[in-house]
Design brief:
heterodimer, A: alpha+beta, three-stranded antiparallel beta sheet, B: alpha/beta, six-stranded parallel beta sheet, four-stranded parallel beta sheet, 18% strand, globular
Chain lengths: 58, 349
């Protein structure tokens, strides 16, 4: 079991309804998902960055 | 009778003013259940250590399964009574184990709850509390396999719901624990508790909830009332057993046997702290075009409505206002009609 923290740049074209599948698709690359959430959102330059904590089994 | 089925989420371990302590969101949950006449919520909202209660209008669903329900993967089936089994961590000392077994016996004798058996894990579960992310409660377990194996053995004996009790390390950051007891900090163990119950939900697909086993701590004078429910007994197990005793069965969709009491498509709204919009249940509800009712309930997160372009998001100042909004939704009253100023309709040609 691994706790991972990472930053995910948000594509400009994405809307709120598509956000969850987008994030899940990224976390699944790291392992089987146990728990996750967005814990912060920041703007860097002109990019919106999602800060995500996920707990995965790999 | 009109209802407006609603989900209430107050994430664990993020220090919310209401719901960040020991079952201190239970009165708010009862209010919202009364307003909606049908509420789905999770153990962090309902469990107050020794204190909790049953409510005919509330579905008690662990967080991982609640997320699945929000994603419309499962439905909920009301039951008269669950047959509960308990997993105990091998690390629990005999005296603490005995206290928990007496809680189980008392729950059978005094509350009429069906607790059939218990199992002790083959190996220590290995709780690790982590503070990698300052201000948030998180962590993991070293040996998830032993937990899942113990749960499977209970299910093989006909158990339909699982309470889990794991031994938390004595080396917990006492400074932060005391801040929490004074109502100034976060519940440092809550994040790992969620991980444990998520594991059981994910792999065993039965109702479950977790209670930590802790060594007794010193009496505290300046105790915040919101944390008091965790100071009045030897264990935190009673509220878990009360919640699980009538927790709904989790039915995978599509439901071929027509057993479901509440389908996910019946849900109209989710109520959530305004800074905690980044959880899976909320995003799943956005995906499904449901009402998001964001309540001012300060915690350590600030994932707020300003980041989301979503037109069914309602901001309210407290749970009393959220209850009023749910009643308006339930009764088909345009909430704008009650607010001022009231604007004229627009010409869109």
């Amino acid at each position: 079991m691994q706790s991972i923290y990472y930053e995910l740049p948000l594509p400009e074209s994405i809307n709120a309804k598509d956000l969850r599948p987008f994030i899940i698709g990224e976390i699944l690359k790291k392992g089987e998902i146990i728990r996750w959430s967005i814990y912060d959102i920041v703007i860097t330059g002109n990019k919106k960055i999602l800060k995500i904590n996920a707990l995965v089994l790999n | 009778m009109r209802t407006t089925p609603t989900i209430l989420v107050i994430p664990t371990g993020i220090g919310c003013e209401i719901g960040g302590f020991a079952g201190d969101a239970l009165p708010a949950a009862k209010l919202l259940a009364s307003a909606s006449r049908c509420l789905v919520t999770h153990p962090n909202v309902m469990n107050g250590g020794t204190l909790s209660e049953k409510n005919e209008r509330i579905f008690y669903v662990e967080g991982y399964s609640l997320d699945r329900f929000a994603r419309a993967e499962i439905g909920l089936k009301k039951v008269n009574q669950q047959k509960i089994g308990i997993i105990f961590d091998k690390n629990i000392e005999n005296e603490i184990l005995l206290r928990h077994l007496q809680v189980a016996d008392a729950s059978i004798a005094t509350l009429g709850i069906d607790i059939a058996s218990y199992v002790i894990t083959d190996e220590p579960v290995g709780i690790v509390i982590s503070n990698e992310l300052s201000g948030l409660s998180s962590g993991y377990v070293r040996n998830p396999e032993t937990l899942i194996k113990a749960g499977k053995s209970l299910i093989n004996q006909g158990i339909t719901a699982i309470a889990i009790v794991t031994r938390f390390p004595d080396e917990i950051d006492i400074e932060n624990v005391n801040l929490y007891r004074e109502g100034k900090g976060i519940d440092v163990i809550a994040g790992v508790e969620a991980v444990i119950s998520h594991l059981i939900s994910k792999y065993l697909k039965v109702p479950c909830a977790h209670a930590p086993a802790l060594a007794p701590i010193d009496l505290k004078v300046n105790l915040d009332p919101r944390a008091a429910a965790e100071e009045i007994g030897y264990t935190f197990l009673p509220s878990v057993l009360i919640g699980l005793s009538t927790a709904p069965d989790l039915i995978d969709l599509p439901d071929l046997d027509n057993k479901i009491t509440l389908f996910p498509h019946e849900i109209e709204s989710i109520v959530v702290p305004s800074g905690a919009l980044g959880g899976e249940a909320v995003l799943a509800c956005m995906e499904r075009d449901l009402n998001i009712i964001a309540v001012k309930n300060d915690g350590v997160l600030n994932v707020s409505s300003k980041w989301f372009d979503y037109n069914k998001l309602f901001k309210v100042d407290n749970y009393l206002e959220a209850a009023g909004l749910l009643i308006a939704i339930r009764e088909g009253i345009n909430y704008k009609s009650i607010k001022r100023p009231l604007n004229s309709i627009k010409n869109c040609t």
